[in-house]
Amino acid sequence: MTWGQVDQRPRPESEWLRTPAEHLRIVDEPLWRRVQSRRKDTEGRAVRFESGRMSGRPPKSVSVNLLAGLATCALCGGGLIVETSSGKRGRVPEYVCHRRRANGTCSNALRMPVADMNEAVLQAVEEHALTPEAIELVILLSERDEAADRQATLARERKDVEKRIARLVAAKS
Ligand SMILES: [Zn+2]
After folding, report:
1. pTM higher than 0.85, yes or no?
2. How close is the Cα of 117 to the center of ligand 1, in Å?
């Protein structure tokens, strides 16, 4: 053991003393329980590596209207809405231009099956945004931001110290 070092080891959980401390509680009990059950819900569905590839897509039930209110019509810029049409394949939800549907002011007659479009978008997201390289870049950029923040703080402190020194020098003379 080096001088001054204390040999600290975490105690096993069975030896822990637990004391309820209401004043230290950050979230209340019901919320905590909800968070826990929500976490159990999403476990296994969350982002994970699969043979080096990131895979994290919303569960099927939630992604039904993935792009509604988000995607826009290429012709008029209006929002896309989901409309269910009864075709040969049964009732199929499709993305259609909201302006064409509402008042016919757009000439875009395209009806894109929601499932096809969602699949294409999710695949593109997985390919381009969820690659290990892309994620590493995001981490790198945020670290760079932190370094810049630290640098700015140090620069401010330095100016402050310089001012104080200048004041001291002025007071002496
Ligand atoms: Zn349109």
Report:
1. no
2. 17
